[in-house]
Amino acid sequence: MAISLPEIEAALDAVLPRSGERPATLCAAMRWAVEGGGKRIRPQICLAAAEAVGGAAADALMPACAIELLHSYTLVHDDLPAMDNDAERRGKPSVWAKFGEANAILVGDALQALAFETLARTPENRPGTLAKMLAAFGKYAVGVVRGQVEDIADGKKDVPFIYEHKTADLFMSAAVTGALAGGGDDAEVEKLRLFAYHLGLAFQYEDDLLDGDAPCGFDVAAARVRTETDAAIAALNGLPGDTEFLVSLAKRLVDRTR
Amino acid sequence: MAISLPEIEAALDAVLPRSGERPATLCAAMRWAVEGGGKRIRPQICLAAAEAVGGAAADALMPACAIELLHSYTLVHDDLPAMDNDAERRGKPSVWAKFGEANAILVGDALQALAFETLARTPENRPGTLAKMLAAFGKYAVGVVRGQVEDIADGKKDVPFIYEHKTADLFMSAAVTGALAGGGDDAEVEKLRLFAYHLGLAFQYEDDLLDGDAPCGFDVAAARVRTETDAAIAALNGLPGDTEFLVSLAKRLVDRTR
Fold first, then answer.
1. For residues A85 and A31, is the Cβ–Cβ distance under 8 A?
2. Complex ipTM
3. Which among B23, B113, B134 has CB closest to A120?
4. What Cα–Cα distance (Å) separates residue A28 from each residue in A8, A39, A220, B109, B169?
5. pLDDT at A258
6. Which of A128, A228, B53, B72 has its CA at a distance of 20 to 30 angstroms from the CA of residue A182?
7. pLDDT grade for B255, boundaries at 50, 70 and 90
8. What long-range pairs does A185-193 form, CB within 8 A, spacing at least 24?
9. Nearest CA to CA, how far is B154 from chain A (Å)?
10. In total, how many domains does chain B have?
11. What confidence tier does A1 reach under pLDDT thresholds 50, 70, 90?
């Protein structure tokens, strides 16, 4: 792909508040949440989606940052004492453990707002693209919360609903906004949405395997990883641009289980 | 103004999730947070700003709903046990008191996402307007969190900074997005931003008076209510549209103290 991981990091650094901005706690905590350790899978999907429709990855740099900011806010709120109560994230104290619970709630709020603000900075090569990007980004941002509410509910949970929303919605947001930023038409955007839907499910079933906790059973989960990965790759057929990165990403994610 | 309060309520009802949507808890809690009791000052500012630049209030209906959803999310999170720990809001249980703390965090998150999604539904009468609206809405959405982080900080607080961001930013967001949706040019949008800035400060000083707790002293706060209200009304000079509603709103807010 035309944009490297260090370039993604540099772009994230540029959209996050400068250290001189106030309040200093908020700036430091927002950077703490975003910097250090993320694999940046969603921004990579976003950038590669722009290339897959024949556009330039650079056109999708702002949506790529936006989706990572959004993903980061969900992790900050997931870790809260009232939610998963995780004091660690990626080997360092989680935001609430380091900056306090109230600040962590607000840091998540600010990261979500900054995600949308960042999305607005996408160069609009075709009229109407931003409205479509924003509609999709907003819908999936609501969707990821729907998945999380179901996940923390008492009683019997709808696991497919949780996977679809908590995981696949962010992947779809990345792919759809990237394809739109790259100038994709409706049919091309839909192919990328479908790719990301299946990839998100494959990713989630694989996470279950890696965690040693598959609600649907180990064999079913292992089979789903493969069928969803195949479906993801198949969805890319007929796209006008370079899909090599997305195919290799899908295969790499499967390899995590071996 | 051409759009009545019941019409604002109907528009909010239409953008909130239907009762059949899942998870049911999220839908019910989002409606609980938004419905019943709000004075809808910010949506009214937004709609009237569109009229003040010579546009139609109807063009600003989506931003008007978006700003109320955003305002509602800030109240849901402000009330949380880790923040103000308020079990009541507008005479009924606050969202966390009724639906639990974890759900309240998520309800706020979903309301913020829905606010941005709603903004995307604004009819774009001029190319580039949505990007400007989104940039402003995003900036002020970050700003309101900056104000809140300063407000909950330990030690000496910068009270003007808190007022400017926690209160005035939402008023400015309403006025700027409304003016943009109404087709205002840069100079007109700036007049409305300035109106909202001063009105927001007047509103906040007056809240201090009504609460009987003015950090700057009662006399100073009472004087500021008047000077800020005057400055707000003066900022409207030279606008091409109907500013009567905004002037009367500013005067009505002052009258709250008498």
1. no
2. 0.96
3. B134
4. 19, 21, 43, 21, 22
5. 46
6. A228
7. confident
8. A185/A53, A188/A52, A188/A53, A188/A239, A188/A240, A189/A53, A191/A235, A191/A236, A191/A237, A191/A238, A191/A239, A192/A49, A192/A52, A192/A53, A192/A235, A192/A236, A192/A239
9. 11
10. 1
11. confident
Per-residue pLDDT at B127: 85
What is the Cα–Cα distance from B232 to B220, expressed in whole angstroms? Answer: 18
- Between the alpha carbon of residue B98 and those of residues A81, A82, B33, B71, the distances in Å are 19, 15, 10, 19
Which tokens is A151 given? Answer: 């996940």
Residues 6 or more apart from A4 whose CB is under 8 A from it? none
Q: Is the Cβ of A160 closer than 8 Å to some Cβ of chain B?
A: no
How far is residue A196 CA from its own chain's centroid?
A: 10
Interface residue B88 vs chain A (CB under 8 A): no
CATH number of the domain at A71, please: 1.10.600.10
Q: Which residues of B touch A73 (CB under 8 A)?
A: 109
| Helices (runs of H) and strands (runs of E) counted in chain B | 12, 2
Q: Does A97 touch chain B (CB under 8 A)?
A: no
Token pair of A58 as six digits = 């650079």
Task: Express as a percent the part of chain B with pLDDT over 90.
Answer: 88
Give the residue numbers spanning the domain of B74. 5-255
Q: List the 188-247 stretch of A: residues with Cβ below 8 A of B.
A: none
pLDDT at residue B26, rounded to an integer: 97
Nearest by CB to residue A106, choosing from B127, B139, B145, is: B145
Nearest to B65 by CA among B165, B147, B173: B173
CA distance to partner chain A, nearest, from residue B237 (Å): 30
- In DSSP terms, which residues pair with A92 in a beta bridge? A89
Mutation pick from A149, A150, A156 vs chain B, by most beta carbons of B within 10 Å, is A149
CB-based contact, B157 to chain A, within 8 Å: no
User: With an 8 Å Cβ cutoff, are B112 and A112 in contact?
Assistant: yes
What amino acid occupies position B8?
I
DSSP, residue by residue, A91-117: TEE-HHHHH-HHHHHHHHHHHHHHHHH
A115-119, A132-136, A210-214, B28-32: which has the minimum mean pLDDT? A210-214
For A11-44, what is each residue's pLDDT tens digit?
999 999 998 899 999 999 999 999 977 899 999 9
CB-closest option in A83, A128, A134 to B116: A134
Q: What is the mean pLDDT of residues B11-27?
A: 94
Which pLDDT value is given to residue A30?
Answer: 98
Identify the pLDDT of residue B257.
52
- A92-93 vs A88-89, strand pairing mode: antiparallel
Residue numbers of A between 9 and 68 with CB closer than 8 Å to B: 22-23, 25-26
Pick the closest to residue B172 from B44, B14, B42 (CA basis). B42
Q: Which residues of A touch B149 (CB under 8 A)?
A: 23, 25-26, 103, 106, 110
